[in-house]
Amino acid sequence: MRRLKRxxxxxxxxxxxxxxxFVFFVxxxxxxxLGGAFLFLVLSGFARKRESxxxxxxxxxxxxxxxxxxx
Length: 71
What we know:
Layout: H1 6-28, H2 31-47, H3 53-64
Helix pairs in contact: 1-2
């Protein structure tokens, strides 16, 4: 079983908190839980590691040993 990376796990935790805050907003009707849900949703997006296409391609080639046929 693969272990989740720290940034992926952090992003999932923030997304879970956003869902929880949205449920609180629906059940209570207060504006503060809605703001918290929006905040945690934005933090979840920022917690993800950005990867360029070249980095993705290099990682894929290293993992599976596949090279471009054009080269």
